[in-house]
Specification:
Radius of gyration: 23 Å
Structural class: alpha/beta
Number of strands: 26
Shape: globular
Helix content: 25-40%
Largest sheet: 7 strands, mixed
């Protein structure tokens, strides 16, 4: 990911079965808040997000491993073959979408590192007279100690003791690193930044237990505005130093390390299936809504090589040896979770949902064009100053992975049009999968939306303090990165970024159903509530966007 700091340059017979339980077929319908709309079809929902996984990857794997855990999961439920995640296809909007039912224009969450023209910079203590405009960082940077797997809790004997990490990671966020609300002059925690409520909050209001595991303490955002949605939130820091690996390597820089890291979260979920908290210290009962995300597929797609194996894809959509190995790993871990559900006699009362926060692009290695975005943005700032003597930098903040999101210090349409014209006129040289020079035009962009067009792109109100001023859709294969250290990224609007698997299997789901009509991962949220017998319209984003539960035909 290339980040620019603030003010820096740089079909179906089973439909009747579903209708009988009312789990997936019904659209969200009005009912009193939090009241069950029908008898419960499931007592537990286990949500698994395999970051980077494409529907094509799942289909490829199942075709070659028809008796695998992933094959059993898909065959034992409803497989949606044309599911799309949020746009931008980044971790935070993707996960937030699955658990709120909303897209970024509604949730206010556009990326894991973003910007708000309505908040004050982190560290502001005297707010009077301070000009608004602040980076909103939802990454490892917020940790009290981002180098430690426990984010600064101070556990001894890591990494094995990581399961003793707190289930309240909000306490591990450094308030001095948070943006500040100009009205209250107090730090804005991730959960307060979210504009809508979450599945976890609705479940808790209904008296149900909740748990989740993810990769940063900043996933406090999933607690929702109340800050209390998740009773047991386990968030070992993935970008910390990987103990037992080469110096300077974090858990994402070696695929074996990422698998080890994912294993801690799997163990946490196994403990929760057994009725304990994630640490297996307290007997609390199996959560009604719980789950985790896997990171290892994503690193197997990004790394050129790891553990003696070539990363990424051999040809368009054909996993290479490292990715194929990692798909085996994920299959084994999913199998362990399904086995534990059966061993605890929970299989008949648990619905398992498998999807992904985002895909990864490109899946065609020959299309890769790595472009350093730093000179592009430096040039834009220089051109702006030349045209406006005395002006400062035009770029307030930018996040460029395989998309381009830019926030400007001047939010006028004229400034946005200036930036658009400059970027679309730029050409240069990147490098391909072989490291050799590869030309690019139009800054590597296929389309660039500016000002009001950028707001419309996200169905947001023009002038909203969070919406980017420019949104760039890249030419296929473009990844903004300096150097040659990655071969894929996510965040963009190509099919490789957006097309993810979606399977609903187990309690309340018919077997062997394939739905080929388009669906969205935002439909997971109201479907979870429907499965638990709760009202999907208890979710703010469902009411705003009219998000429907998943169909079965």
């Amino acid at each position: 990911m290339s980040r620019r700091p603030v003010h820096s340059v740089r079909s179906v017979a089973a439909a009747a079965a579903l209708a009988a339980v009312g789990a997936l077929t019904a659209a969200a319908t009005p009912a009193s808040a939090h009241a069950p709309v029908h008898p419960r079809a499931a007592r537990h929902v286990l949500l698994l997000s395999v970051d980077g996984l494409h529907q094509s990857d799942l289909a490829w794997y199942i075709a070659r491993h028809p008796h695998s855990a992933l094959a059993r999961l898909a065959g034992g439920g409803v497989e949606y073959t044309h599911a799309r995640t949020t746009n931008p296809s980044d971790s935070f909007p993707g996960m937030v979408g699955q658990l709120t039912g909303g897209d970024p224009g509604t949730t206010g969450v556009y990326y894991d590192d973003t910007y708000s023209s309505g908040l004050l910079p982190a560290g502001t203590t005297k707010c009077a007279g301070v000009k608004p405009g602040a980076e909103v960082d939802l990454t490892e940077d917020l940790d009290k100690n981002q180098d430690s797997l426990d984010a600064g809790q101070g556990l001894s004997g890591l990494p094995g003791s990581i399961l003793q990490m707190t289930g309240n990671p909000t306490t591990l966020l450094d308030p001095a690193k948070l943006p500040v609300d100009p009205k209250t002059c107090r730090p804005v925690y991730p959960h307060s930044y979210l504009r809508v409520n979450t599945v976890f909050e609705v479940a808790r209001t209904a008296g149900l237990r909740t748990a989740w595991s993810d990769k940063h303490a900043a996933y406090d955002i999933l607690n929702g505005q109340s800050g209390k949605g998740i009773q047991d939130l386990f968030t070992p820091e993935i970008n910390s130093k990987a103990i037992g690996y080469a110096a300077g390597v974090d858990w994402t820089k070696d695929n074996a390390a990422t698998e080890q890291y994912d294993g801690y979260k799997v163990r946490a979920v196994l403990n929760e299936i057994d009725g304990y908290d994630h640490s297996r210290t307290h007997k609390v009962g199996t959560p009604a809504v719980f789950g985790m995300n896997f990171q290892s597929v994503s690193t197997a797609q990004k790394l050129p090589a790891s553990d003696g194996l070539t990363g990424g894809y051999q040809a368009k959509g054909v996993p290479g040896p490292l990715l194929a190995k990692n798909l085996d790993f994920v299959d084994q871990q999913v199998g362990a979770l399904l086995t534990e559900l059966r061993a605890r006699h929970l299989a008949d009362s648990t619905t398992v949902i498998l999807s992904a926060k985002h895909g990864q692009s490109p899946t065609d290695p020959t299309a890769l064009n790595r472009i350093d975005d730093g000179p592009l943005l430096d040039g834009l700032n220089a051109a702006w100053k030349a045209a406006h003597p005395g002006a400062g930098d035009l770029v307030a903040h930018a996040v460029d992975d395989d998309a381009m999101l830019i926030w400007l210090t001047d939010r006028s349409q004229a400034a946005a049009d200036f930036a658009k014209a400059y970027l679309l006129a730029r050409s240069g040289t990147g490098n391909g999968i072989d490291g050799k020079a590869r030309p690019f035009t139009a800054s590597g962009l296929q389309k660039l939306y500016a000002g009001t067009a950028a707001a419309r792109y996200f169905h947001a109100r023009p002038g909203d303090d969070r919406v980017p001023d420019l949104v760039g859709v890249t030419q296929y294969g473009v990844v903004y990165t300096g150097g040659k250290g990655k071969i894929a990224e996510h965040g963009g609007a190509h099919a490789d970024d957006l097309d993810v698997p979606l399977v609903v299997s187990g309690a309340a789901a018919p077997h062997g159903v394939r739905v080929d009509s388009p669906v969205r991962t935002t439909q997971i949220a109201p479907t979870i509530l429907r499965l638990l017998g709760l009202d999907p319209r208890s979710l703010d984003a469902v009411r705003i966007e009219h998000t429907r539960t998943l169909p079965a035909r």
